[in-house]
Design goal:
Elements lengths: L3 E5 L4 H13 L2 E6 L5 H12 L3 E5 L2 E6 L9 E2 L4 H11 L4 E6 L10 H9 L3 E5 L3 E8 L6 E3 L5 H13 L2 E6 L7 H8 L4 E4 L2 E6 L7 E3 L4 H13 L4 E8 L7 H8 L2 E10 L2 E9 L7 E2 L11 H9 L3 E5 L12 H11 L5 E3 L2 E6 L6 E3 L5 H14 L3 E3 L12 H6 L3
Parallel strand pairs: 1-14, 2-13, 5-6, 9-10, 17-18, 21-22
Antiparallel strand pairs: 2-4, 3-4, 6-8, 7-8, 10-12, 11-12, 14-16, 15-16, 18-20, 19-20
Helix pairs in contact: 1-2, 1-3, 1-6, 3-5, 4-5, 7-9, 7-11, 8-9, 9-11
Bound molecules: shikimate-3-phosphate.
Length: 414
């Protein structure tokens, strides 16, 4: 089997969420092209509609008319989406009235104190289950800017605070230990807001109005990582992934695959709607183990499950460390990977903040529990394709969270 040809993946999830949110905050009508239409993004669209935005679709284009958000009459259901829940918390913190928010059985277990505490410090009030989980009620109001130093690099927390800071009186500054994805900062600039960036700090002086813009959403690098690993792990493969977001805060998986022995070329690089976009050409090779950790973790956090799959086929040891955030994603992804590999007959070492994989692993057909986590499901599907074994996933629907059409696109990838 060689993987050859070219492919487009659906629009970037992080940018799609933000395009709708910024459109809802901006005066006028924002045009969003190429938006991801996955379950997570639908949660954001429904929530913003409940908050008073008008969101309509014609053909492939979305029109978002915003500017006058108000207290919702219904409970906001963020579904499986941490980005919806956390970024909207920042928006609702400055929206007068009360917003009640909940989520699915995964999201209600994920930590919300990381947005609740700083937003309380800016003047919003929260009433949350056990003080830190959904469901929660937010009383929005007049906010004041503050400075925050985050303990973990988190784009969701940073974005919630910047969105609150946009409407707050005075300056809001967020400093991260290392830089997480910066789509919010870029989109603030694209929508005409003034921000200042220095190293891993960003400041916004509020209150500011933003006005409607056009946003073209590029392909999602986190989705592209699945076929990229498939091609990288199969020698003789050559796969061109077109129009992918190449924002350097998202492309950490590329140097990792290069370190492991794949050849990767970036082509047709250009700027669009404040983001860097281009094509990724992956040439497969025999892979070797590597160490993944430190500041690169935020740049590839969502790609770790599929990089762990690449490590299964690499010669030598792959160490993944400094990634304890994986334990609080849609599921505990470290635990889910270790259990999945064990179901396929392979032992990998679980550490508190990562994994140690001594490759190549000998894998056999078996069932895998996905914990309804889209990236766990897609990672084990890629593993099954590389290994040429049957992997029986207990939930395949969950891929619709971020990558509708994943299985049919992968079917065409031979
Ligand atoms: C996201 C940020 C990341 C990432 C998530 C999407 C975003 O989470 O894992 O899938 O759109 O801001 P954290 O910010 O919690 O690390």
């Amino acid at each position: 089997m060689h993987i050859t040809g070219e492919m487009r993946v659906p629009g970037d999830k992080s940018i799609s969420h933000r395009a709708f949110m910024f459109g809802a905050l901006a005066q006028g009508t924002t045009l969003v092209r190429g938006a991801l239409e996955s379950l997570d993004v639908q949660s954001t669209i429904r929530a913003l509609t409940a908050l008073g935005a008008r969101i309509e679709k014609t053909g492939h284009d979305w029109h978002v008319t915003g500017g006058g958000l108000h207290e919702p009459e219904v409970v906001i259901d963020a579904g499986n989406s941490g980005t919806t829940a956390r970024l909207l918390s920042g928006i609702c913190a400055s929206t007068p009235g009360i917003t009640v928010m909940t989520g699915d059985s995964s999201l209600i277990k994920r930590p919300m104190a990381r947005v609740i505490r700083p937003l309380e410090g800016m003047g919003a009030s929260f009433l949350a289950r056990q003080g830190r989980f959904l469901p929660m009620a937010i009383r929005g109001g007049d906010l004041h800017g503050r400075s925050f130093t985050l303990e973990v690099a988190s784009a969701q927390v940073k974005s919630a605070l910047l969105l609150a800071g946009l409407k707050a009186e005075g300056t809001t500054t967020v400093t991260e230990p290392s830089l997480s994805r910066d789509h919010t900062e870029r989109m603030l600039g694209h929508f005409g807001a003034r921000i200042e960036r220095q190293g891993t700090s960003v400041s916004i002086h509020g209150p500011q109005e933003i006005s409607a813009r056009e946003v073209s959403v590029p392909g999602d690098p986190s989705s592209a990582a699945f076929p990229a690993v498939l091609a990288a792990a199969v020698p003789g493969s050559e796969l061109l992934l077109r129009d992918i977001c190449l924002n350097p805060t998202r492309t950490g998986f590329i140097p990792v695959l290069e370190r492991m022995g794949a050849r990767i070329a970036l082509q047709n690089i250009h700027e669009d709607s404040g983001e860097t976009v281009g094509d990724i050409l992956v040439t497969g090779g025999g892979l070797t183990g590597t160490t993944i950790g430190g500041d690169e973790i935020p740049r590839l956090i969502d790609e770790i499950p599929v990089l762990a799959v690449a490590a299964c086929f690499a010669k030598g040891t792959t160490v993944i460390r400094d990634a304890s955030e994986l334990r609080v994603k849609e599921t505990d992804r470290i635990g889910a990977l270790v259990r999945g590999f064990a179901s396929l007959g392979a032992q990998v070492e679980e550490t508190s903040d990562g994994l140690v994989i001594d490759g190549p692993l000998s894998l056999r057909t078996g069932p895998v529990q996905t914990f309804s986590d889209h990236r766990i499901a897609m990672s084990f599907f890629i593993l099954s394709r590389i290994a040429g074994i049957e992997v029986d996933l207990d939930d395949t629907q969950c891929v619709g969270i971020s990558f509708p059409g994943f299985f049919s696109l992968m079917e065409g990838c031979r």
